[in-house]
Amino acid sequence: MPNKAKTELTSKKKTESSITSDFVLKVGDGALLYVAGGGAKPASELVLPAKFRLTDDEKIDLLYLMKKTRGTENKIIKLYRQGKIVGGVYTGAGQEATSVGTAYALEKGDYLVPMHRDMGSHIAHGQDLRKIFSQYLGRVTAPTRGKEGNMHMGDFEKNITCMISHLGSNMPVAVGIAYSYILRNEKHTVLTYIGDGGASIGDFHEALNFASVVKAPLVLCIENNQFAYSTPTRQQYNCTQLADRALAYGIPGYVVDGNDVEAVYSVTKALIERAREGEGPALFESISMRMHGHSAHDDAFYVPKSMFEEWARKDPILRYQKKLMEEDILSEEELAKLDQRVETEIEEAAEWALQQPEPPAYEAALGVYADEMPQLWAGYRPNPKLV
Amino acid sequence: MAEKGRGEVVTYIEAITIGLREEMERDERVWLLGEDIGVYGGAFKVTKGFIDKFGEKRVLDTPLSESAIVGVAIGSALNGMIPVAEMQFADFISSGFNQIVNQAAKMHYRYGAPVPMVIRAPTGGGVHGGPFHSQNPEMWFVKTPGLKVVEPSTPYDAYGLIKAAIRDPNPVIYFEHKYLYRRIKEKLPEEEYIVEIGKADVKREGTDITVVTYGSMVHFSLEAADILSKEGVEVEIVDLRTLLPIDKETILKSVRKTGKLCIVHEDTLTAGMGGEIAAIVAEYAFDALDAPIKRVAALDTPVPYAPALEAFFSPDTKKILVALRELAAF
Ligand SMILES: Cc1ncc(C[n+]2csc(CCOP(=O)(O)OP(=O)(O)O)c2C)c(N)n1
Ligand SMILES: [Mg+2]
Hints:
- By secondary structure, chain A is of the alpha/beta class.
- Chain A has helices at about 5-15, 55-80, 95-105, 120-125, 130-135, 170-185, 200-215, 245-250, 260-280, 305-310, 315-325, 330-355; strands at about 110-115, 190-195, 220-225, 225-230, 230, 255, 280-285.
- Chain A is globular, with a radius of gyration of 25 Å.
- Chain B has two domains: about 10-185, 3-Layer(aba) Sandwich (Rossmann fold); about 200-330, Rossmann fold, CATH 3.40.50.920.
- Chain B has helices spanning about 10-25, 50-55, 65-80, 95-110, 140, 155-165, 215-230, 250-260, 275-285, 305-315, 315-330; strands spanning about 10, 30-35, 60, 80-85, 120-125, 150, 170-175, 185, 200-205, 210-215, 235-240, 240-245, 260-270, 295-300.
- Magnesium ion binds near residues 227 and 228 of chain A.
């Protein structure tokens, strides 16, 4: 029970109030100093210099890489359903324009820090299908020699990190890779990704703030595929676009049609080359749709059917194929050849991987420390401290 | 004032500074990052003057951002550099915990990528820091395969271990005890040396009781041993120096000699280092024991602020003496 004296005091105060007008705070004429939103003011144009524009051959290459990505993941799902691949399988179907278009913008020596929808990034950054199938099948020929599964396929030799599951945690690591280029005065860049869900975690903030302060040569692609597992974006964040957050870090931010591979490439390339020239990090949000459940075991009952239907019509691969044919860059005949090539490569690689041995069981006990049997890894780069 | 170097009498904190500086001169891949380490020279001044000598890129004042500091260090280690990250206080290492235990520790196991990095963490109590500037968080990491964890107790070891940590191809957490920073002095050898990670050190030889300890408690244990010596009891003091990997050999050798074991640490009792060492000894040297194993450690509580409370909480010479006298009488 409130004590009497106190009750009297509050009620007295209330009746005494005779204020009737609002108090207006205005920037410029009082103590209100600033209205948020003015950190970095990106120009409304993003210029991709002529020398980086796509040639016809490169355009066909993009289509090839997207088809290879889709085909590889379809094959992986098949092997999973046959019980040959165990554990979880997460694919990026519907998002190939984003994964391929972004990684295609990297140059040799640049670093890729991918996430779990980015099979296309691995493939575009030069990862070999044999290694990819070995990885999913847990064979000794995988870049992780069976220590890791599915999309956790870092490859030290190819400048691809081995993502950890903890979403967001890979972002500060990407900043550190980028900062090393500053320390060594090297003109390389780093490309990394985060989902619409992962963007909610603290490391997202820590990494972007840090990157901006040290001007790290880093580009972040926010893969907005409308869902984080079952959670729709309206329950994930409450800003208009995730790219709006760029302003808070004082870096440029853009939103791009994530199903338009040329657009994705152009935005990424412009920002990557800007970073390479020492102008610091940038981010863009790539709008697409996860065209299936979160993983192979999820039927995505929570996604309206109409939404799947709508996005199926926007399939980035069919869309680009149509475009290249309309522009006479690709003929019927060439298309048939391309499809055949993709299929042969996938079948050959999967078959090869199925023939490879599993790692010997005792290897489970090895490799915790770098000074212990490092020669196990084919791609092992001796530690700089030890040479 | 001239920089101190080898061959001089130095404090524990000066020994760390000398080791760091020499490693940065030796190898330009070594670089430092942390909060207030550059212009200010670090909260405890370990890196005072470094920014002038090595430049602001190699001595990076970072945002207040432990997860990013550790993550950036990891990325830079993956990309050919050797970062030494400073946690302003060991307590704040929890804000970078995920990066340490899930990125750094597992990286090499998962795909063969070495992560040569050091995290320096000013640890421990006795400085009236209260619950968030006094903790001993070493056991959060000793539980994590892939990390190495060290904690020197003397200037000699502080210098030798920081150099070993920087040259190690694995992530090493280097706990430096705040209580010892300016209290312990010693003359460093003229010649450069390293202290091998994974090797304990017998700080005092004895025949009757083995004390296994580390960090600041080495000094309290030595004090207790001197008192007992006058009573005719000779205590052997094993300073672990490295907590992971554990030097089982040195521990077992000493226990086999004395037949009695007391483990002393400033960290809290439950699931502390003492439990692990007791288990090792019970498993491999049960036959050598003439008395039950004893543990002297802090209370299972947060670290309290007021001096009387902290004194009650923390182990000290008196509490060690009580345990050792009981063992002697057994
Ligand atoms: C820190 C963390 N919490 C939870 C999970 C479990 N998890 C895996 S994927 C996922 C959804 C991710 O959504 P989003 O970031 O949008 O990426 P998407 O899968 O949609 O590409 C969740 C919750 C995780 N991997 N990491
Ligand atoms: Mg998503």
